[in-house]
Amino acid sequence: MFNFNSTIRKIKLPFFSTVDICFDLGTSNTKIAIKDKGVILREPTVLAYDSKIKDYIFFGKEAKDIIGKTPEFIQINKPINNGVISDFDAEVILLRHFIEKSVSHYLKSFHLLKPNLIAVAAVPTIASEIEIKAVEEVFLKLGFSEVFIIEKPLAVAVGNKINVFAHSPYLSIDMGGGLIELSITSSGGIIVKKVLKNAGDVMNKTLANYVYLKYGVILGDRTCEDLKINLLNFKNEDKVANVRGKSLENGLPKSIKIKSSDVKEALTNSFNQILDAAKELIEISPPEVIDEIFNYGIILSGGLAKIKGIDNFFAQELKLDVSILSNPEDATINGLFNICKSSDHLVKLSLPKI
Questions:
Q1: Contact 337, 22 (CB under 8 A)
Q2: Span 248-276, mean pLDDT?
């Protein structure tokens, strides 16, 4: 069937320039890449609103650094929740700031005519039609002429160097800040999938609750995230960190020592839920898929895949080979970037227009 969009994008004329820009709209971090340039921005998906002047004043890393330290009139906003847009206007403002910070420098090379901007973004498989439409509307409001939406497991698979058009099923587990997405992909689509919401951000709260109950100390979300990143491992390395929180007894500052074993004990149930979901995914898969999954194993990605020893931990529990590519946290944005290299692949993997 003739595809006008696919055909017109192949026309290379000086007056018909297009720029493909990829967006990983993560709950924790936003990443932007430009076709033929690579990843040009990695920033936390956070911005700060000043109610006195009724405007946003801090964005990305700067906004994240002040979490828990602001006066009442400065409110921290996280416009992406569980992988989908929860605050449309804030997300538009945040992306506009990120685009001006990174993409605008590249666009200056087009002296005569401003090129058509093409947005390529990933959405979780649990996103509703309304949530997918919200992503499209964000980019149209930002001045993009066309928007391609791709389901995140497909982008992750391509980012993990999997040929998604081959007839060989692959099981991937993407463990990010907002969602844990488990999927088996093959023949350009998703065979089966499962999604959990006990991802990185929920784990931070779980760890905070553990410390509250065990030590009687209240820790901030940022402190808990640092503990998870620096102490958690599955190699039986028992590290220790001194942290300061608010005492439950008198409300005064109190220092305590947190060990790796504490963090592991607090979060073991969360990782067991991921293992259970992986087992359920395999159980509901067609019989023909199972044999190839056992041959190819599992690929882990996302920020949690950087935890030391997590591949061996999963391999022992699931009795499958587990692999992690370099920079697993960039699997989604790298996948979108690689999909953009082929107009045919971009059209085939994109969701139908709503």
A1: yes
A2: 94
